[in-house]
Design a protein that fits this description.
The chain is an alpha/beta fold. It is built from six helices and five strands. It has a five-stranded parallel sheet with strand order 2-1-3-4-5, sandwiched between helices. The longest helix is centred in the C-terminal third of the chain and has 17 residues.
């Protein structure tokens, strides 16, 4: 008797769904080497990773429901749409993804950029290059907080839980 079971994934299974016990992190950065390094680090820590190259691509994927991340890590300075504008747009989406924790990062950060990112809805602002231990701790903290408070205030500039600017981290290499 011939085996009729295919070894290929079933066509109705979305390719972006991680195993049930795995968190998914959406990495948005225009530089392939940054996505590769961060992706390898996150995968080695057990996370599923989805990538986009700019804010427009990321928003399209989120709006279409093509991705359902548990956390977003985005660069600020990108072509097409920068990370701060993307964060603001995500917070106004009418879907559960609007409440996903967002870590915003830049290698050319100044206080104004940090303030702007936190004001539009970033949960944390980090300076690149990342201190990977600190990034790991922050990801864990944000995922834990999101599980405890799934219906948080998603209005842009929300100050729930204290001053968002004071909650940001500056990470040195």
């Amino acid at each position: 008797m011939r085996n009729r079971m295919s070894t290929h994934p079933h066509h109705s299974t979305p390719p972006v769904l991680p195993p049930a016990n795995q968190f998914t992190i959406f990495v948005i950065d225009d530089l392939p080497q940054n996505r590769m390094i961060l992706g390898k680090f996150l995968k080695s820590a057990g996370y599923a990773v989805i990538e986009a190259t700019n804010g427009v691509e990321a928003l399209d994927m989120l709006r279409e429901g093509a991705v359902r991340p548990d956390l977003i890590v985005t660069d600020v300075e990108m072509p097409v749409m920068d990370g701060i504008t993307m964060v603001e747009q995500v917070r106004y989406l009418e879907s559960p993804v609007a409440t996903v924790p967002i870590i915003t990062a830049s290698g050319n950060a100044d206080e104004d950029m940090q303030r702007d990112a936190l004001a539009v809805g970033s949960d944390v602002f980090l300076t690149k290059p990342f201190d990977l231990r600190e990034l790991s701790r922050e990801i864990g903290k944000q995922l834990k907080r999101a599980r405890r408070n799934p219906a948080r205030d998603t209005s842009a500039g929300s100050q729930a839980g204290g001053n968002r600017f004071d909650q940001g981290l500056q990470v040195n290499s």
